[in-house]
């Protein structure tokens, strides 16, 4: 999206108006409407290692104006891909001819699916227009009993996000007053669908579910990529530790005391692109799981199982000497 289109959509979504300049005349027209937009990734394919803003090359100020944001990734799925192929092929068939069912399943289930494809359920356009016109005339208001629930949700969500950022150093979502306004707009829209002048708890809960589903679809891919990178780093550190131990056993033989110097491990980690901070985080995780242990000055590392074996061997030697 170029800069001119960005400024135009800012005005429409923020001020509910659009400015038009034609033949030397400038005017502002009302644009009280909902905005439904779709965007493709900048490089043709979504990169889960980057944020949604970086993939679409859109600023956060613009994306935050959309109440709901759903991320649709093209993932390989046998059932979904088969349905997509059948739908595309059905467009090239003669009228009345249904696509062949190639998926496994009962004959009765296949017949039901075929009937649903041949006879889809549609709503008459005149009925739909009348329903929308009636819904536009309704201006729902919030009930007083709902105000404490909304206030409590907003305050608790902001607090949880602050705690998450403090503990993990990563802020997966950020709830702003604009998100609260979007939640209220969704609640009012759901009340209009019920032809109700009052926003009830069920409307707020459904709007909250939509908002949470939207946030989950956006953050799921980033969270999965982040966990994968974290798991890969931890696994790499463990492999480096085992290889360093094996190499020191070959070099020192029986003189090896079981400890691997931390500086030796740091050099190996730097060679594969693991920073000292990532190395220490991985080692501390293994220490909490009682897999490894540090010496008194925390400059040497030993496997806990090996330390126990060496302690038991020393006890046996002491007993033999006493005998």
Automatic annotation (TrEMBL):
A GO term for molecular function: single-stranded DNA binding
UniProt-listed InterPro entries: MCM, MCM_dom, MCM_lid, P-loop_NTPase
Every MCM C-terminal AAA(+) ATPase domain range: 1-88
Low complexity compositional bias, start-end: 108-118
Leader peptide range in chain numbering: none
Keywords: ATP-binding, DNA-binding, Nucleotide-binding
Keyword Transport: no
Annotated region (Disordered), positions in chain: 97-120
SMART domains: MCM
GO biological process, one term: DNA replication initiation
Any one GO cellular component localisation term in the record: nucleus
Family affiliation: Belongs to the MCM family.
Name of the molecule in the record: DNA replication licensing factor, putative
Lineage summary: Eukaryota, Sar, Alveolata, Apicomplexa, Conoidasida
């Amino acid at each position: 999206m170029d800069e001119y289109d960005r400024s135009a959509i800012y005005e429409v979504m923020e001020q509910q108006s659009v400015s038009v300049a034609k033949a030397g005349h400038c005017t502002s027209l009302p644009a009280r409407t909902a905005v439904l937009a779709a965007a493709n990734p900048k490089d043709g394919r979504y990169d889960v290692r980057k944020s949604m803003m970086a993939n679409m090359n859109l600023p956060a100020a613009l994306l935050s104006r959309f109440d709901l944001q759903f991320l649709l990734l093209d993932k390989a799925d046998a059932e979904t891909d088969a349905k997509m192929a059948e739908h595309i092929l059905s467009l090239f068939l003669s009228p009345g001819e249904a696509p062949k069912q190639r998926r496994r399943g009962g004959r009765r289930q296949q017949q039901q699916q075929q009937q649903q494809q041949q006879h889809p359920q549609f709503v008459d356009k005149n009925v739909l227009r009348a329903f929308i016109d009636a819904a536009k005339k309704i201006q729902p208001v919030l009930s007083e009993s709902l105000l404490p629930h909304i206030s409590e949700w907003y305050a608790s969500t902001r607090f949880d996000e602050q705690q998450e950022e403090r503990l993990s150093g990563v802020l997966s979502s950020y709830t702003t007053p604009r998100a609260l306004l979007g939640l209220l707009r969704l609640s009012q829209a759901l009340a209009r669908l019920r032809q109700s002048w009052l926003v009830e708890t069920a409307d707020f809960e459904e709007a909250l579910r939509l908002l949470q589903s939207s946030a989950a679809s956006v953050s799921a891919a980033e969270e999965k990529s982040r966990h994968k990178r974290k798991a890969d780093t931890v696994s790499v550190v463990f492999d480096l530790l085992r290889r360093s131990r094996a190499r020191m056993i070959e070099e020192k033989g029986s003189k090896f005391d079981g400890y691997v110097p931390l500086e030796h491990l740091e050099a190996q980690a730097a060679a594969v692109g693991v920073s000292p901070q990532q190395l220490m985080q991985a080692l501390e995780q293994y220490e909490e799981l009682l897999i490894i242990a540090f010496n008194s000055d925390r400059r040497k590392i030993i496997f806990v199982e090996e330390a126990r074996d060496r302690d038991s061997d020393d006890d046996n030697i002491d007993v033999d000497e006493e005998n």
